[in-house]
Recover the amino acids of this structure.
């Protein structure tokens, strides 16, 4: 009997370290922008503020999922399985915010 060694799929691109550092810097920049915008818009209570922070959170989530979870290297079908439900959840969040804004306006 011949002994064969089973290797798992652990390949990553040669420039993965560079991509991780670049993603870290982008996430740091977006977080600083997020915090600065929060303090600038602190007294404002509007739908724009909610949409802006949700959008920034989704951009940061995209970078985390694409690089750290290696979704950038997956097949398109698998990416669609994850992206389409996320878009649906974003739509539901938008509906909830619109309803809350409407209800708040009635009071």
């Amino acid at each position: 009997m011949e002994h064969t060694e089973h290797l798992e799929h652990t390949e990553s691109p040669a420039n993965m370290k560079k991509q991780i550092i670049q993603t870290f810097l982008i996430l740091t920049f977006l977080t600083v922008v997020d915090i600065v915008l929060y303090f600038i818009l602190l007294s404002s209570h509007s739908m724009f503020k909610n949409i802006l922070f949700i959008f920034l959170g989704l951009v940061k989530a995209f970078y985390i999922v694409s690089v750290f979870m290696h979704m950038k290297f997956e097949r398109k079908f698998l990416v669609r399985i994850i992206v389409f439900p996320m878009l649906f959840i974003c739509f539901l969040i938008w509906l909830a915010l619109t309803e809350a804004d409407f209800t708040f306006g009635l009071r």
